[in-house]
Specification:
- The chain is an alpha/beta fold.
- The chain has two domains: 6-286, TIM Barrel (Alpha-Beta Barrel); 289-381, no CATH class.
- 52% of the residues lie in helices and 12% in strands.
- The strands form two sheets. The protein has an eight-stranded parallel barrel with strand order 1-2-3-4-7-8-9-10, surrounded by five helices. A two-stranded antiparallel sheet has the order 5-6.
- Helix 7 (225-246) packs parallel to helix 8.
- The longest helix is centred in the middle third of the chain and has 29 residues, at 139-167.
- The structure holds zinc ion (ZN).
- Residues 79, 177, 179-180, 208, 257 line the site of zinc ion.
């Protein structure tokens, strides 16, 4: 199963916005840009909301049917490991093997020695086919890469073989993720990680490295854009080299996680994809649910009260809700509006504070991030929340489509 050049991970926490999301992909298709929608939901999300992986597949299927979508589409077992993969086997055909926790763990000394022996042929200078990108490789460097990453690669091999055993070879797409780790991977490290994955027999089609800078959920990139641009450029060269050298699938591409709202990176990413004729998987961070809350607020009346009530509860449970996301959010508590203040807002005020429009003075990234991790509160509202989604679907759906199309698909894929 081949992953197409362009694909996008779309999160839909409550499974109500599949069709509205697909409409954004239809708009891209109308401009001759084919993007494969990939419904992603992690085990963490399923546990928080109380859904099962098959629910994500059902939501995707119903959206595909409703919109008569004829292009490819996939369901991603997002950030799974050996302990969590079992329940995702049947409903998923895209697997994100999260091995970040194994980075830095020591592999067996024999395996390290084997790795160094296998890749010692690259000691010296390795150049990309166009000669523009050069990696300087030494034996101590290979040793270091093995010590830091080999265990993680071996873990990816174990998870991959478990899935392959259950689903059959070539029946699913493999992504390997290292983004939820502390230190970014350099292009040279990436080259040998890919080599090691090939050696381990993992037909990786997309890899999510940790880039430098911060990829906080639902807000813009925090970091040096010029440095990111250089890194992304080099990573794209490395991927092309890895395909040629290691026999990895030709569809191999980078996956950008927590990719929602990284507005300052989209232009450089788009230009570099053009330059390298490369594809990308942009995994959004499940901010579709924030469009739901904005739509409810704009609907006014009880729906606005429901939105304000969700915020009030999230505010009161700040530590509990933020803890699982500590490395991917940055909330200044003192800049959060008090719930009593929010209770007096109009729907317009609420939506303006929440929706990510950097030009709008009312936009509050702290408010947005807290609500983003506050989906647990909405989940606890049960049918009160989902019935409100259904009652106000006409107001919510255009926001969902607009967010994906105007803010994400256009700048990244269409340009
Ligand atoms: Zn990730």
């Amino acid at each position: 199963m081949k992953l197409e050049k362009y694909s996008m991970g779309i999160g839909d926490r409550f499974g109500h916005q599949g069709a509205a999301q697909l409409q954004a992909f239809e708009l891209a298709r109308a401009q001759q840009v084919d993007i494969t929608p990939v419904w992603n939901k992690s085990n963490r999300e399923h546990t928080t909301i109380g859904t099962k992986p098959e629910n994500a597949r059902q939501a995707a299927e119903s959206a595909v049917r409703q919109r008569k979508w004829t292009g490819p589409w996939l369901v991603d077992a997002d950030h799974i490991g050996l302990k969590t993969v079992a329940g995702f086997i049947a409903p998923c055909d895209f697997f994100t093997l999260d091995v970040a926790d194994f980075i830095g763990e020591a592999a067996d000394p024999d395996a390290i020695a084997e790795f160094v022996a296998v890749f010692s042929r690259y000691v010296g200078t390795v150049a990309s086919p166009d000669g523009k990108m050069k990696l300087e490789v030494t034996l101590p460097f290979l040793q270091e890469v093995a010590c830091r990453y080999l265990k993680a690669v071996q873990e990816a091999g174990k998870i991959y073989r478990f899935i392959e055993e259950a689903k059959g070879r070539g029946k699913f797409v493999t992504e390997v993720s290292m983004d939820e780790s502390l230190q970014p991977q350099t292009p040279a490290e990436l080259f040998f990680i890919l080599g090691a994955l090939a050696h381990e027999g993992v037909p990786v089609q997309t890899l999510a490295p940790k880039f430098s800078g911060r990829f906080n959920k639902g807000v813009d990139y925090v970091g040096d854009v010029a440095q990111f641009t250089r890194e992304f450029d080099a990573d794209l060269s490395v991927l092309a080299m890895a395909v040629a050298e290691f026999g990895l699938p030709a569809s191999l591409k980078l996956s950008v996680h927590s990719g929602s709202d990284k507005f300052s990176l989209y232009r450089p990413i788009h230009q570099l994809l053009r330059k390298h004729q490369a594809g990308v998987h942009l995994k959004t961070a499940g901010t579709t649910w924030l469009e739901e809350v904005a739509g409810l607020a704009l609907a006014g009346g009880d729906a606005l009260k429901l939105a304000a009530g969700i915020y009030e509860k999230a505010y009161g449970r700040f530590d509990e809700l933020c803890a699982p996301y500590a490395t991917v959010i940055e909330i200044h508590k003192s800049d959060l509006p008090a719930p009593q203040v929010v209770a007096g807002w109009t729907g317009q005020d609420f939506a303006a504070a929440l929706r990510h429009d950097p030009a709008n003075k009312l936009f509050n990234p702290n408010f947005r991030q807290l609500l983003h991790v506050g989906y647990k509160v909405a989940a606890e509202c049960g049918t009160v929340y989902t019935q409100a989604l259904e009652a106000h679907a006409d107001r919510i759906a255009p926001l969902v489509t607009d967010n994906l199309w105007n803010k994400h698909i256009q700048p990244v894929f269409v340009g």
